């Protein structure tokens, strides 16, 4: 089971008062709804939960529900403001633990009456808070409500069914004020729990994204912190290697588990998938010298067998789809100063020696006590990557720590190139000199590559300790060169890196919970997507994720909101729209133009019909319907080049405008009466008086804040993917233009000058004839 305690001793406090009533001019709904938010599940787990929950709030597992008091929605701006009731009070580490509500406590934190704002311009959650700052003689208690969390609706699932509006899985991150609430124990921008709210009333989504988060999830049989989870793409699904003796699971593309294979798996991820023959090769803890194999079908697992037996325990396993070779690194003893390479294909394996430290490093002399060369058994829960490169070799990241002559500290994170088919031992493995960097105290133990470009990193979420580096592989020298030196504080929280079909690196950030698309060879973010429960995915180094060529991604998240003190490994599916947009035929364009041309008269008819349905005997409304129907018929007849229908529709329009509906009923003399009903007042929803006993308030006045303001992290606006950018082809050929003239002229006649402008703007590059009007 994962430990509940990770951050060290943390104490903060938070107190809240009532919010200012909503004043947005919008349609108010009945106060029927709830907000669900756990604030930060790891904080709840660490503190053993809130001391008091009430005043409209209730406890749910490792989170809280707040009751709705008022909600408004502005249709024009698509802005939702939802006010909720509820008080959450944490009073911990008290002088009298038996009386936390009256005793002096180190942790004294109150959060009250949250308000959610969702709009295209800004989305956030605010509340009234008060927090006794840890180890400081001050109270953070602003008079007004402050923004605690920045909300990211692009991750959310929105529904509006039966009059009930629902937002689920809204990712949230910590604001500067929210961090003050936590005594600045975390960092601005760190992920918080996802937000969910629902209410009866009006609402609409405003999110437009080429990225979609599926609602389905898959839960691992092992906890997130138990060790490395490995993901392998079977095409029809995903094969998951689970740590802590939980074996392997086969799930389909909709994240439904199909079958499970029992195996005594360890915590470092010792498996590789032969995608050419659909065979899983793996090592379990019963005998780490045995390389086992099992066939994978769309419906399950075959019978496991021993594919090969190495001379010693296997430390790393990899598969190269280009050469169809399985390779394994086999250190000869605990010191890992010598090793062999077990490799083979189609069930036939051989074992050959790998170079000694002296052979690897050549002129760079090793110390008399050389340290580890081929492995590091102290790299607990850390996968030793053995990854395929484009030239048929493997890239090996075994976390060795050799001591070189005259140096007091070991050198870390050296990389080796492995060539299984080499006949000379010195060619079978070579030291990549470009992987050595000057800092001897920095680990870069996570690594990912697309076969040419390499990103390596550590998973430390602390900006002062987080480091990453971009490398590029040179197949001629079997070496790497740095595209950047190890950079500190860049995108802290490297959980994993994947590459899309175009070679674009994608970072899973375990601090903010975001997926960040990076500019190749750099750390510049070009696009981001917030991942609910994506934070703390750094707890295990390089928990891999899958990126398919079609844009489908399978990404791990960490859920600790279930109240069982566990950190659940939850796999999510994300669909990214392909940038290869299929060409649109001329027929499709004509259909689109026709729909656009008829949209205005059709809407006019729909509105008139709706009005008549509310007052069926109203003759004026009957006339409006007749006029709208005739105008729609005229536009349709012009598009269809139907002279008979056009004449009939024009005659019907003339009759309707003259007040003579086709039914022959005379036009009523009495005009439509004005509405004499007074405007209904907006119902007030004052906050009910608190019937709970008075809660203690901090006695110490809030001193002036002597801390310097923290700069907010820059979040450059991501570029739109190519699929969303306007593509303006060159002018169409003469023959194509001629083919368009007749239907275009017909449309222009139906729409007039306004229609001309609409059509010309809708299809870039389209040649239109000059207008005769």
From TrEMBL:
Residues 1-28 form the signal peptide. Residues 32-197 form the Htaa domain. Pfam families: HtaA. Residues 649-734 are annotated as: Disordered. Residues 649-658 have a biased composition (Low complexity). The chain crosses the membrane at residues 738-759. Residues 711-728 have a biased composition (Basic and acidic residues). Keywords: Membrane, Signal, Transmembrane, Transmembrane helix. It comes from the Bacteria. This is Htaa domain-containing protein. It comes from Corynebacterium phoceense.
């Amino acid at each position: 089971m994962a430990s509940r305690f990770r951050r060290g001793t943390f104490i903060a406090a938070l107190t809240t008062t009532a919010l200012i009533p909503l004043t947005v001019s919008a349609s108010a709904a009945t106060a029927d709804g709830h907000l669900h938010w756990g604030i930060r599940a790891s904080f709840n787990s660490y503190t053993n939960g809130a001391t008091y929950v009430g005043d409209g709030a209730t406890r749910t597992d490792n989170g809280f529900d707040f009751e709705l008091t008022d909600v408004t929605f502005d249709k024009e701006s698509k802005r939702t403001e939802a006010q909720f009731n509820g008080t959450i009070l944490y009073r911990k580490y008290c002088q009298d633990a038996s009386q936390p509500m009256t005793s002096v406590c180190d942790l004294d934190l109150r959060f009250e009456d949250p308000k959610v704002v969702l709009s295209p311009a800004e989305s956030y959650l605010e509340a009234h808070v008060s927090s006794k700052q840890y180890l400081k003689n001050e109270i953070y208690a602003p008079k007004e409500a402050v923004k605690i969390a920045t909300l990211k609706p692009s991750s959310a699932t929105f529904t509006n069914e039966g009059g009930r509006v629902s937002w689920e899985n809204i990712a949230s991150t910590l604001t500067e004020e929210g961090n003050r609430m936590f005594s600045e124990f975390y960092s601005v921008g760190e992920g918080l729990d996802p937000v969910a709210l629902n209410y009866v009333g009006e609402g609409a989504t405003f999110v437009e994204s080429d990225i979609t988060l599926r609602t389905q999830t898959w839960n691992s049989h092992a906890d997130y912190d138990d060790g490395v989870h490995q993901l392998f793409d079977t095409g029809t699904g995903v094969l998951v290697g689970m740590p802590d003796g939980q074996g392997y699971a086969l799930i389909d593309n909709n994240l439904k588990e199909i079958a499970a294979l029992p195996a005594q798996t360890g915590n470092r991820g010792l498996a590789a998938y032969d995608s050419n023959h659909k065979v899983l090769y793996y090592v379990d803890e019963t005998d780490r010298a045995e390389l086992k194999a099992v066939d994978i079908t769309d419906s399950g697992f075959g019978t496991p067998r021993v594919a090969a037996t190495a001379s010693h325990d296997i430390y790393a396993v990899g598969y190269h789809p280009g050469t169809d070779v399985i390779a394994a690194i086999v250190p000869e003893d605990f010191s890992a100063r010598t090793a062999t390479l077990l490799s083979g294909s189609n069930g036939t394996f051989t074992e050959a020696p790998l170079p000694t430290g002296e052979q690897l490093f050549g002129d760079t002399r090793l110390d008399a006590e050389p340290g580890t060369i081929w492995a590091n058994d102290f790299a607990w829960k850390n996968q030793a990557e053995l990854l395929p490169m484009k030239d048929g070799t493997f890239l090996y990241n075994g976390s060795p720590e050799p001591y070189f002559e005259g140096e007091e500290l070991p050198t870390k994170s050296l990389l080796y190139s492995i060539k299984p088919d080499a006949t000379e031992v010195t060619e079978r493995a070579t030291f990549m000199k470009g992987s050595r960097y000057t800092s001897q105290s920095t680990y870069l133990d996570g690594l990912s590559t697309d076969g040419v470009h390499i990103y390596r990193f550590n998973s430390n979420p602390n900006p002062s300790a987080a480091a990453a580096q971009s490398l590029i592989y040179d197949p001629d020298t079997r070496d790497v060169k740095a595209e950047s030196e190890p950079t500190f504080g860049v995108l802290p929280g490297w959980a994993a890196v994947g590459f899309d079909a175009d070679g674009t690196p994608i970072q899973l950030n375990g601090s903010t919970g975001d997926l960040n698309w990076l500019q190749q060879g750099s750390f510049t973010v070009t696009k981001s997507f917030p991942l609910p429960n994506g934070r703390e995915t750094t707890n295990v180094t390089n928990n891999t994720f899958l990126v398919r060529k079609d844009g489908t991604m399978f990404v791990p998240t960490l859920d600790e909101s279930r109240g069982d003190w566990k950190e659940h490994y939850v796999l999510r599916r994300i669909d990214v729209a392909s940038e290869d947009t299929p060409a649109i035929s001329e027929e499709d364009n004509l259909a689109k133009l026709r729909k656009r041309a008829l949209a205005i008269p059709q809407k006019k008819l729909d509105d008139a019909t709706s009005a008549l349905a509310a007052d069926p005997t109203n003759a004026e409304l009957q006339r409006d319907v007749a006029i709208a129907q005739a105008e729609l018929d005229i536009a349709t007849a012009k598009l269809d080049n139907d002279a008979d229908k056009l004449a009939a529709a024009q005659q019907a329009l003339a009759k309707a405008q003259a007040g003579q509906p086709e039914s022959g009923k005379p036009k009523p003399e009495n005009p439509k009466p004005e509405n004499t009903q007074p405007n209904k007042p907006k119902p007030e929803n004052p906050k009910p008086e608190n019937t709970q006993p008075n809660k203690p308030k901090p006695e110490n006045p809030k001193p002036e804040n002597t801390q310097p303001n923290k700069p907010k992290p820059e979040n450059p606006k991501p570029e739109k993917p190519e699929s969303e950018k306007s593509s303006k082809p060159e002018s169409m050929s003469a023959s194509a233009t001629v083919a368009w003239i007749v239907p275009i002229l017909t449309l222009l006649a139906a729409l007039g000058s306004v229609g001309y402008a609409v059509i010309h703007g809708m299809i870039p590059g389209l040649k239109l004839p000059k207008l005769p009007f």
